[in-house]
Design a protein that fits this description.
about 40% helix, Rossmann fold, 9 strands, 10 helices, alpha/beta, three-stranded antiparallel beta sheet, 2 domains
């Protein structure tokens, strides 16, 4: 594993790789890497000759400055984890001034995919995601890009952007990695106390319970929200049961071929905002 800090050096390195007919995979991250990220890197290493892992805490996708300020920064540990993944891995670690020498004035809009759920509660978030991911796709020109399904809505938005901008690459969604309690691995988990982590494990427990209810969509929704809100220290911000492709709400299970429940829950005293999802169909 070696580290590159500038776009020019990254392009030079990847030009040599492509001249040797080597395939390139990309794993975009904001750092604070964990086993979920490692699973993406290992898959890319298996499927490509070279894997670029970007470590860049992108400011344009944070609509709350305090959220950006408290996001964990663990570069040395991140590099150790990447070393352990094996393969030909490049860590691309640019400064903000490298990625945004000037303000990015581009505006991306893909409703309803980016206007519901996270899009509704975090205005501008997905515009920032599209800004940075489109830059990475342009600089790296990967054959494949790997994203964790924990950020289910993000993948849907990026697919729309790829189609819109006609990027020639494959988006590879990868399964959620969970700890023994069922809590979805997230960089934000490091901000939880041990007691809060145990509390957060209830999110996936309740989602799993809702699968076997055999209830209507409305009753399933209400069961998840009411059960989680009844647990001290947890507060549901939203729970939407949606078409897994368009992300439009469904009112009946047979309205869509794929039905997914997407949730965001505030956990603990700070509180920490945690997202997850469950597949119903």
């Amino acid at each position: 594993m070696h580290t590159i800090n500038t776009i020019l050096d990254l392009r030079r390195h990847l030009d040599m790789c492509r001249a040797a007919e080597r395939t390139v995979g990309l794993v975009p991250t904001m750092g604070a890497l964990h086993e979920g990220h490692a699973s993406l890197v290992r898959r890319s290493v298996k499927e490509n000759d070279v894997t670029v892992v970007s470590i860049f805490l992108n400011p344009t996708q944070f609509n709350d400055p305090k959220d950006l300020e408290r996001y964990p920064r663990t570069l040395e540990a991140d590099c150790r984890l990447l070393e352990s993944c094996g393969g030909d891995v490049v860590a691309f670690v640019p400064r903000v001034s490298e990625m945004y020498p000037d303000p990015d004035l581009r505006h991306f809009s893909y409703p309803p995919t980016d206007s519901v759920m996270e899009g509704a509660f975090r205005p501008g978030h997905f515009n920032g995601v599209c800004q940075i991911v489109s830059k990475l796709f342009t600089y790296v020109m990967p054959d494949r890009a790997y994203f964790g399904e924990k950020d289910y809505q993000q993948i849907a938005v990026i697919r729309r952007m790829v189609a819109d901008l006609e990027f020639r690459l494959q988006i590879v969604p990868c399964p959620v990695v969970r700890d023994e309690s069922g809590l979805a691995m997230s960089s934000r988990n490091s901000l939880l106390t041990p007691e809060e982590r145990a509390l957060a494990a209830n999110i996936y427990r309740v989602l799993k319970e809702s699968i076997v209810l055999g209830a209507t969509v409305r009753d399933t929704h209400d069961y998840v929200v009411n059960t989680l809100n009844a647990i001290p220290g947890l507060e549901v911000q939203y729970y939407n049961i949606v078409d897994g492709d368009s992300l439009a709400d469904v009112s009946e299970w047979d309205e869509a071929e794929h039905v997914v429940g997407c949730i965001t829950v505030y956990c603990g005293a700070t509180p920490i905002r945690l997202i997850d999802h469950i597949r119903y169909k």
